[in-house]
């Protein structure tokens, strides 16, 4: 989280922490957030240890902050709840103005827990795996300057050759984000599926496609001047 953003939220962070402390609930701060916000009255731990020590993770910010935290804690099984202090709040759906009441309701058991699908991907170049990463929203492969030519295979079967500005692989959660802007379908979060959405395809026959969420999707870059892959719009490899 950027330092300027943390400073703007410092009062909310302190108010919420003091509220929980008054209820005899131990509050742990992620180390970098505490340092940037100059919070010294609470125990701090590295992000990598939160999954082992916390029963609930409260994320304050926008959807980008929530996605970053979710990727870091994906294997912990610890539930996350988001308080919206960013521009978009599809995932951080608690209003900051009502955060104390909302958190009290959650602690009282007045909530529903949802599990969200995550995509795992490997980038292979020259026969070697050079990157492995995950995404809760989408994985995007695109070219900035010219059309990219891709071969798409699902579970080892050739589906089609695509010429477009790029291709989005979206989870159901991500189908209300970039995928939707590119003309993709909206999938309910309970649907185990992956949406493959071309970005400005060169032919009318290349349309969005939804496949089984357990499918293995192979994408081969056939021809391109320059291509980049991004995960949730935050982590990128050229």
Q: Nutshell version of this structure?
A:
The chain has 238 residues and is α+β, with helices and mostly antiparallel strands. It contains seven helices and 16 strands.
Can you walk through the features of this model?
The chain is of the alpha+beta class. The chain has two domains: 3-107, Probable inorganic polyphosphate/atp-NAD kinase, domain 1 (Rossmann fold), CATH 3.40.50; 119-237, Probable inorganic polyphosphate/atp-NAD kinase, domain 2 (Tumour Suppressor Smad4). It is built from seven helices and 16 strands. It has helices at residues 3-8, 10-22, 31-37, 47-53, 63-72, 99-107, 178-181, and strands spanning 28-30, 43-45, 57-61, 80-84, 94-95, 119-125, 128-135, 138-142, 148-154, 157-164, 166-170, 193-199, 209-212, 217-223, 228-231, 235-237. Strands 13-12-11-8-15-16 form a six-stranded antiparallel beta sheet, with no helix packed on it. Strands 3-4-5 form a three-stranded parallel beta sheet, with helices on one face. A hairpin with a 3-residue loop joins strand 15 and strand 16. The protein is elongated. The two termini are 24 Å apart.
């Amino acid at each position: 989280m950027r330092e300027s953003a943390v400073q703007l939220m410092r009062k909310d962070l302190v108010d919420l922490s003091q509220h929980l402390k008054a209820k005899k609930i131990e509050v742990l701060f992620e180390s970098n957030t505490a340092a940037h916000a100059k919070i010294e009255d609470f125990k701090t731990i590295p992000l990598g240890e939160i999954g082992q020590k916390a029963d609930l993770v409260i994320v304050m910010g926008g959807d980008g902050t929530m996605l970053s935290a979710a990727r870091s804690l994906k294997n912990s099984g610890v539930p996350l709840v988001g308080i919206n202090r960013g521009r978009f709040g599809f995932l951080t759906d608690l209003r900051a103005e009502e955060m104390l009441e909302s958190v009290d309701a959650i602690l009282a058991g007045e909530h529903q827990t949802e599990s969200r699908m995550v995509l795992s991907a490997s980038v292979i170049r020259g026969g070697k795996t050079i990157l492995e990463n995950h995404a809760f929203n989408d994985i995007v492969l695109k070219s900035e300057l010219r059309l990219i030519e891709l071969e798409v295979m699902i579970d080892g079967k050739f589906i089609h050759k695509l010429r477009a500005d790029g291709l989005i692989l979206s989870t159901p959660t991500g189908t209300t984000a970039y995928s939707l802007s590119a003309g993709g379908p909206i999938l309910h979060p309970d649907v185990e599926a992956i949406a493959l959405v071309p970005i400005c395809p060169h032919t009318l026959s290349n349309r969005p496609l939804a496949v089984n969420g357990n499918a293995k999707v192979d994408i081969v870059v056939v021809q391109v001047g320059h291509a980049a892959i991004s995960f949730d719009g935050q982590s990128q490899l050229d």
